[in-house]
Each structure stands twice: as C-alpha cells, then as structure tokens.
C-alpha cells in the first residue's frame, strides 16, 4: 500500500473535528490533485472494541481496499472509560490501479467512542455514508442486546464471525429477532461460514462428477479434524452437508453425533481436535469409497484424494484460500445473494453450538 | 419457538425457490453452468495458440479450483515428444504467458493430467491409436467418456482431422457422454469456404456440439454489454433511432503485421477483424432483448441483426467503405516502415490494413442510425470501444450561451482499461451561463481489484459446461460472410475497384475515412 505524499499515512490518520469530517475529506482530495482517483462501491462500517482492535482493523481495511473500493467507517468503542468522549480521524488507503499509472484511493474515517457513547453509533454511520452505496456493517465481537433497530434497518449486509461469540445461543437469538425486524432484507455474512468455504467447494466439486453422486446417499461416516477453537467451523461444515442432504438429527453431542438420511442410513460424524489449519481434514466414507480432503497448516491448497471400492484412486489439488480476516471478508464481498444455504446449515447444528 | 424453526419460517417468507440441482451440495456455491469432467484433445499441440493461450488458460482455471477433477489434456501433434518433454515445454510457456504466477504445487498437480499423442493429422493409424488411448483414459480416470476436441490448427487442416475423427468414431459420444468440437477462427475466408467448412464440421459433429470461438466474446466487457443494456432501466428506452444519433465501433492498434505478412496478405483487416469481432460487437449493441439467456435465444437475436444489415453492393462499397493501408511513419517515437515494405509482403500489395465503413441496419429500432465501424493497424493508440452518440437535446434554452452544447456519448471500452463512461453537459461554475461537457467514468480496474479472467478461460469453461452462448453459430458466421463478401468482391473482383487510401503509420487513418463521416456531419471519436 502506498499513499500520495499529501495523504496521511496510517495509523489512524489526521485528527479532525467530528463536525468537519466532510470538509476535511474534501480538502484531502483537493490536495491529491490528479495523482489519485477516489473509488468507492460500498460503505464498509466496522465496529470493534479497544485500540488494539482499531489498529488491527485499519490494517485489514487496507488489505480489503486493494480488492474492494469502499468508504470505510471504523468505529472503535471503549465502553470501559468513565467519561463520554468522541474523537475522529481521516485517512486514505491507496494502491496502484490495475488499469494504469494512477493511484486508487479509498477513504477511511475512524471514530473512537469512549465511555457510554454507543448510542452515537447510528448517527455516526448515517451522517458519513457515501450516498447511494450499500452499507455493509462488520460487527466484531458480540452483538449488543438489543441490537439497535435504527441502525439495523439501514444495513444491507451484516458481517460477523460466529467463532468470536462466547454465547452462540444468545447471539443467534439476537440475530433472529433482528432479522425478523428487518423483514429478511439483510444478508448475513458469517466469516466462520466463509472459513469453511473451500472445504465445502472441494467436497461439492467431488460430487459434481455424476459417477460419484450416488455415494452421497451412502455416507456412513464423516470425520472432521479442526484446530483448537474451530469446532464451530467444523460444525457448520457438517450442518451444511446435513441440510443439503436432508438428514434428520443430530443425535449425540460433542465429539460424535449421528444423522439419519432419508433412506434410513445412519451417518456418524466425528470431530477431532488437532493442531494445524483451522480445518485440516474432512474424510467422508460411503459404501466402501473414501473421499479425503486435507490441508496442511499455512498451505493455500487442499489435497483431495478419492479411493473407490474397485481400487481406482484419484488425487487433485484445489485452492484452500487464506485464513486472515481481510481474505475472509474479501471472499464474502465477491459473493452476492442471500445466504439461504448458510441459514439452513445453522438451523441444523444450532443445538451443537 | 426454537431458533431452527424461526429460521425456516424466515426462509419460507423469502419466497425464493430452493432449487434442486443434480448435485445438492452445489446450491449456493456456483452461479454458472459447471464444467463437466472430460478429456480435452488439442490438435495443434505444438502451436502458438496451445502454448500462449490454451494451456495457460487451463492452468489458471486449475489454480482457481474450477477445473473438474480428472480433467485430462491430450496434446496431438506431428513432432515426436514424450509426455514428460511435452509437459516441460508447456510449463515454460505457462510461466511466461499465464495471467497468474505459476505455483509449483498447482502445476505439479495439473501436469499429471497432460499427455502427448504423436501423429500426422492424416494418419488413420494415429487416430486409431488416439481412440484406444482415450478409451484407456476413460477407464482409468473420471472423465465420464466426455471429449472436447479443440482444433487449434489452420483451417485447411480441419477437414483432414474431422474426417479421421469420424473414421474412428470419435465424433460420436458413448451413451451418457458427449463429444464436442471447438473450432478456431477464421471460419472460412468467404461465404463459400465458410459453408464448405461448416459442411465439413456438420458432417462430423452436430451443430449443438460445435463451438466456434471468437475470443472477443469471452472478454468481460463484451459480456457486460448485455448487462449494461438490459439490467439498467435508464438505457433501453433510449436505445433506438429516436434518441441515438450514431454508433461508432473502433478497434485500433499500433502494431503492424508483426511477421505475419503472408497471413495478412491473404486476409486483410476486413476478414481478420470486421467479419467476426466487430460484427459480433455490433450485434450485441443492436440486438433486441432475448427471451432468456439461453445460448440460442441470444444467438437468435444476433442473427436477426446480421440479417438486417443493409447489403453493401457495387457502388455502395465506394460510398460506404474506405480501405486503407499504412505507409511509413512513426509509432511511439520510432520510425516504422510501410506495409508494402514489411517482411514477406508484396511491394504492390492491395491488402487493406485499415477499414472504415458505414453500416445501416434495416429494422424498426435502428432505422436511419449509422453504425460507423473502423479498424486499423499502425494507429496511434491501442483500443477497442463502442461509442453510442445520442441526439442533441433541443437547444432552445441555451442558444445564446457560451460554449456549444454537445451530444451525450456513452462509451463502452472493451480493451484496454475496460470500463464505461458517459459524457454529459454541465454548467461551469460562475455567474455566466457557460456549458462544458464532463465525463462520468467507470473503470473496471479502479473499482474491482481482482483481474478478470482471460477470454480463453471463460470460453474453455463454457465449452466444458456445454454453454454455447459466447460461441458463434453457423448462421451467424455465414450471415456475416454474406454481408462481407460483396465488399471483398468490389475490392478484388473484375469490375472497377475503389481505390486504396494510404495513411502514415501513427496517424488515425486516411482522410477518406474522415470524409466518410463528414458527409453525414459527423466526426470520428477521439480515443
């Protein structure tokens, strides 16, 4: 990432009075002259807590803007501070455009809300949106109870990471209430779901082959190996398989559960905790065939190996994506549409959460 | 109520049908037809196209994880090579020409699917061995018996290869499988040769299994033309003769013939670019909305446009078409020779390196709207674009203001710097009423960080998926030649021939091309 000389480099940027942000941004762009183009396709509002999270979020925004031009509105709360106080900064993330020599820059407006000032969030967001562009809200951590409906009704996509939640049941209930209020308009983007995307794609691609498809009805056993703290990611992958295959269940809990398929066949699911990639292995056994998907820690590839009862063995290499927050958000941003498949997967494994 | 039920109720309320697909796991993961496992047999595996385009494209598809498991590539060519030496050559080429950096891990996995088959194109035994090898591949690998035959060879080899494929039965798929053929341009050099070629192809493969590649249609911006027209409510009501004054389609390049003199001598700009690429773009701009996005629905509409092109016959050619040839000049600050001085080009050559033409479409929508098409080599800038110039707004209010109101122009840039811009009128700030044109400009490269896939990636995926939307149909190709042939006849036939206009390399073409538009009160757009 580089910046034209007139632009503030990051950290947080140039401190500005909250009421002067638009004017200061305008000045910023005037100073840049013709060396840079401002680009924005979305408003990306990010909520986080604590200054360390704020710095991390700023770095992540820098990476996101390389692929997705946006106006970033970073709201950092420090609710533990006794006094109410609001500070703001402006900055820009710039990179060379694919198209040519000009730099492409995206604005970031950063707010620090100290003390009991969370009620300011809707106004802060509303008053600094780039008009006519959709609003994506990335809420880091737990949702407040209740979620502010005033803000909620403006959100087009809600990004969150269910892995960060300590009480998933409560968070899902909050989500349910808010979804009902928004009448289903909001698109949910769970980064924990995105984390399993490449495994889901690899598993799905293997059954694109009509010759492999009958094995889907014959699954006996699935083993998923996950890193410590990623059980919920593994559960979402299982929820996806179970919901897509219309399995009933689950029975059991924790490390081993059982689903029943429509044909009465029972599929045993085992979760294995293992140091390594968030999801390091998915092994599906079906009627004598084994479909194995593995990923080494840090690798950008999934290794797929299929063995069939007649002795045939097929191997292939598939992309595994990356695990960083920016990469996960970027993955989400290139995908449109309502995440109905996600919602069904969640509904299957909610009890395990 | 349990959370799960709430969600299901919510899902039902969304009223979105839960599509049942063959593979139930695919739901939500892919929004395009899926490529099916198959063996891709490339005829002309030692050729430039294979090394520069096809293998890099297949590698990129693999790196993106979109290559169906078990996809197998068999290179077919005359030179003796082993699988290993063929793979090594392809790796070198992929590292040079691939859009993405070649990663060892991906390449090592990908190359295991590549094999080489040595044979002459006319060798019956070579094809018999090919058939056996493909059967063996089908038995050992999950290709499902599907075969995609890619003719990456000169058109004069097509007949030979197709004949041999038919002789060993490779043109017919086994039950539950498919056999398709991909044919590279040029699709003939005139209508009789195109018909003969199509007859050869159709004697071997059915039309539904024939994929004629025009790589222009695989470009992202070309695909965006339909989205721009039909997904934006503001354009379509204005997209007709009542509001559009003229349309200009330009394809310019600073390059000369770059060592391809003999090919260009037999082709020329009209056959090389206008008959295929530019008429395809014209069709996308001019066609009616298709009933759906099925391949034949889209192609039906394109064919209707081709059938509506007003024929340019006899004297029309002199009045509606300008052919030019570059003479010595300068490109990018360097002196360059004229076309007739190029390697292996006749010093008296009459081959056109530049064409400008006025095309009229005789249908309701485009009555009286000229489509100006120009293409040329050794022009100052590289660029392919479509410019839609709207009629001027009534000037009643602004007759006496400083600055003459100009037309609104919508520009669709195909390459490079893909994007869309719209020129409109704006008041210059100040107490006086002064009007100046301003430009709203959208650049793909600025707004979307991710690079678009190469045209060949998209087209190979489509051929593997059985989606022929972006491939030319037989009647499109023959219709285009039916329009082009009388022009070639006027230029090269026995009657009085319109002259060849010369332009210095590095200029924007001959003055006759400017005069072609000037007679209608128009000028060429400045790129």
Please tell me about this protein's structure:
The complex is a heterodimer of chains A (353) and B (527). Chain A has two domains: 14-191, 3-Layer(aba) Sandwich (Rossmann fold), CATH 3.40.50; 194-352, Dihydrodipicolinate Reductase, domain 2 (2-Layer Sandwich), CATH 3.30.360. Helices cover 29% and strands 33% of the residues of chain A. Chain A starts with 13 loop residues before the first strand and ends with a helix. The longest helix of chain A has 17 residues, at 51-67. Chain A is of the alpha/beta class and 353 residues long. Mean pLDDT of chain A is 87; it is low at 1-10. Chain A has ten helices and 17 strands. Chain B has 527 residues and is of the alpha/beta class. Helices cover 36% and strands 20% of the residues of chain B. Chain B has helices at 3-14, 48-63, 83-97, 104-111, 124-140, 158-167, 191-202, 220-230, 261-286, 295-308, 315-320, 444-447, 455-465, 474-492, 511-518; strands spanning 39-43, 72-77, 114-118, 147-151, 179-184, 210-213, 244-253, 321-327, 329-331, 334-336, 354-360, 370-377, 383-390, 409-415, 419-427, 435-443, 471-472, 501-504. The radius of gyration of chain B is 26 Å and the shape is globular. Chain B starts with a helix and ends in a 9-residue tail after the last helix. The chains are: A alpha/beta (353), B alpha/beta (527). Chains A and B meet through helix 2, helix 5, helix 7, helix 8 and strand 16 of A and helix 1, helix 4 and helix 12 of B.
Key attributes of the depicted protein:
heterodimer; A: about 350 residues; alpha/beta; Rossmann fold; Dihydrodipicolinate Reductase, domain 2; 8-stranded mixed beta sheet; 10 helices; 17 strands; about 35% strand; B: about 525 residues; 9-stranded mixed beta sheet; 7-stranded mixed beta sheet; globular; disordered N terminus
How is the largest sheet of chain B built, in terms of strand order? 16-15-14-13-7-12-11-8-18
Low-confidence stretches of chain B: 1-21
What integer value in Å does the Rg of chain A equal?
A: 23 Å
The number of E-state strands of chain A comes to 17
